[in-house]
Amino acid sequence: MNLVLGCVTQKYAQFSGRAPRKEYWLFVLVFYVLFFLLAFIDGAIGTWIEEVGMGVLSGIFGLALLLPFISTSVRRLHDTNRSGWWYLLFLIPIIGTIWILILFCLKGTDGENRFGPNPLNDGLT
What we know:
This protein is mostly helical. The chain has 5 helices and 2 strands, in the order ααββααα. It has one domain. 53% of the residues lie in helices and 3% in strands. A hairpin with a 4-residue loop joins strand 1 and strand 2. Helix 2 packs antiparallel against helix 3. The chain is globular, with a radius of gyration of 16 Å. The mean pLDDT is 93.
């Protein structure tokens, strides 16, 4: 849980450095669980906006964590020794999304790479 809180507090908009798979996937898991919980609450209390396909609470939550989500994704790409610009593959329908998800699943480079030291050596296992 400290990894997720670190992404939202200390690394809110930190695009430099590396994020190991555990940090990235825990952040994504917590993000989507909370997002869907808030979307359910939006539906229950009547703040769901059908035309937008999102509720007020889930929309505010998603907007507040958009920057940490992108920065964690960029740092995850850095861990695989790829530039953060690879994140723009999401703009290519279907194929780009599948390819970027494959990149997020790859093991990070061993040792230091051009984006910094291996985060697994810092006790973030």
